[in-house]
């Protein structure tokens, strides 16, 4: 423990202060001296030049030139030495003591201590025209310990340029006189640390997200230094020039000279604090900083969504800037145009229409450009390229269709919204109805938002307000013990969806347009940005808008109206402030819940030691919480204790490694490895496919379910846990758009640790039966929680959002194969089914005639036709072979026919072929059954009486490992389909039949039942080894049933299990976790394992803490920090594929759908007019073919069946007529005989109904299609 602490102090604390230099006792004296003198040179050189020479640009140029030459020489030599080691250019090898006169480049020892004269040296040839030989007494590891390696020429050039920039900008600030006295030395130390890190960086750095050498973190210090120095110089120049025009907002003057100089001084202090900042890891690595900065600007300034990568953030910001520039041009022109009081300029109405249309379009697009690129690439390049069947995945095509559907819909909706907005803005309605309209809109927005995002979600929670014991608005599945069907659409879900629709597309656009019209008198840039941000935010995430809007209206209209700029700007800045306040609230909730003394769980002795220090730390903790909320940094517990420190800023996607699970199967492993070592034969690798299928199910339904309110309120960055009987997954919602959600799923172990099981029990057990109140148990009111239960629920970092969330999945049953094959009678049943399955596949094969006519096969099987033929291989045994002839001590054709001839003849009756006793078919079946059993015996070590060898052989054949060792069986190589299409399926089918034998032992004695059972299993079930890629494809394609034989070798156990999967609907508990709890615990794990190097697998920070679900959250981190068994890629779910949401909002309005609707309406018009003129019928009759088969007479056409969303095809935008079933006669229209007046009246009213239907139905259809 002491040595580890000293190592952390040397390589962690001291190296972070100096930029990477420290004394390593494990390295040679030369290496330590080289590092020391290098660091002293980089520190003393600028300091001595500045102090001894007069300040001038010439001196700065000399300093930069020396630094550039110095770094170029070191990087060139280091690069060439590494290249030499890679090539291994050994010319001669001799003892170093014998070499005295050769030119030497002695670079120290081998890294483990001092050299003596007896060690060997290596002559290596450099790329020198003269062919000079240098003796290098260094190996690769010693060279890596001396200097960091840059693998490419570009990296070396970039490092030299960066070091020169650090020297130039740093010395430029010294020349400007920003530093005096001791601060000159401090600033030179900062320069030296930034330059030294380019030669020998801090590894591991406090901000490094990964173990080992992180090449990105090397450039963090110099890049931050250059940015900081450039900003200092620019702010100083701008503050002294006075050319910038200051402006005032809320009494604060921005960009004045005093403001700029103050900002410059803050940055100077910040630059001097670089050693402390990097020691505590307060600045992330460069790519994370870039992504976070661009994302925050896009979200808070332009109303963008979260991003998934630095490229995504750059693309999203550039897209927003281009749209904002376009809008700014129109807004500036409109504001500068003359305004007549009762009228609105046309250009301003155009600006309003463009603002709404473009904001709507941006809200419906993902921030990831890879999605658009994949659609473009597939449409132009990859379309039509054939793919192997077992790699065919239908999901990518569905996603591409969803993206194309969005584009086609926006092609219609954006112009339509622009025209409607233009018309409303030009009508002066927002001016004529002032000021009453503004108050009405604010009140309506507040009331609808309160009802939609507070009251309805609370009534649907499992514990509303943590007072009621049951939800008030319950789903239909709530009272069901086992869910049998997909979730039913409830009335309050429809209400929630429609209220959101009204809120997003009516109320908030009206609020923004009202403010734009009444307050557009200046500041075109602010108006454009504010309108764009607020509209995009209301389209994407309206759940928190009503709180911000209500507070803004109350604060600036009633409390402090003199502080108001304009309502639009007030709303804009309040939205930024409220997002930070929400973050602060979540952080304080997490901290207070985590350190509450009555529920603290000490995972180690350090936790008990650190607990008293949390009390005096409380004041500093609040300051840290404010700071972390302002800069979006997590608060992480130190080593899992009650002491919290802030970390570096992170984006919404707060993990920096793109770690995704790669399943190990037969498609990515060598054949020899598959046969010998059986890779991936652990439960975690094999069970990961179920989380992959769960991800696919969520991809189909998550966005629609969120819009229906089935997960409660949600915002960007929220974390949820899905818990069922065996599946426990963390779902992180990253990006929320208008009709799309990007998320990532992390699956935990099925049978987790003890700590995980305790936390799973905590989130699955109910508290409704708790009757405690303090120390007594007086009970509770009906349908209410007790005092203790209500108090306890308020002190948790999580809450139950739903208890019966239904998803399509697989029920998993695993039976121990040893218990099912323990006795010989059970093995005999399996062998019997094995033989019958081989016979079945032989008779069903389309190549049967070819096999019967094959001369090689006939020649090999000819001895079997002899009357005295006996196969007395030791494989065959009286205990397990039904056709064993104990008199002949083997298997004979006669005994085989006595047992299996009836089955052969029945199978043959389905596909007629000669099947007499001496027929070629019977001989072929006999030969294949002998071969199959001998292969099983070979794999089982000659059918040993022990169970383990039998199971080993059965598993080997199940996965396709057939070892044909007998010369009598080599005839099977005449056609490999005899093994692949007959014997291998026979082994697998026999296992399924053996499973069914336990439920109905005598049922399969009937050949008809057995044949039908095998046929049904072939059609509805996949029986395969789990390592076969077909297994994964079948699960992802929603195969109804699957069966496999699993060999598990884990933690010393060696078991064989029969895995049976059946597709069904699974019920999950949805647990909403405080997102700051997840961010903080992940940051703490990263700091503890990477920087502090705690390698204890039972460390205190992963022990269970039920109030924060500490073990489950920490287990979901990327490996090797956590240990999830599956981590999905970033996955996007679209609302267009959710059938229930389509039934509420209607389908998309696209050109194709409009064209289809017009054609269908024209057809209905023709049919309706024809029916009305001819028979007085109505449109329904004409659509039924002109007969009287109306809806009541044709119920089959309108029967609805609950079908899982993922198995339903996307609704096609075609309207088809209802016709009677094929083959049924069309019923003529019913006619009534009456007098002329009644007949004329009936005809008149029928024609009136026809015209009315023609007018109203197309209009209703258009209205339904227009609502998205």
UniProtKB/TrEMBL annotation:
Record's keyword terms, sorted: Membrane, Transmembrane, Transmembrane helix
Predominant place of localization: membrane
Signal peptide residues on this chain, from the entry's feature table: none
UniProt GO cellular component terms: membrane
Source organism, top-level taxon: Eukaryota
All copies of domain Pecanex C-terminal, residue ranges: 914-1139
Membrane topology term: Multi-pass membrane protein
Bias-annotated ranges (Polar residues): 1189-1206
Family of the protein in this entry: Belongs to the pecanex family.
Name of the protein this chain belongs to: Pecanex-like protein
Organism per entry: Salmo trutta (Brown trout)
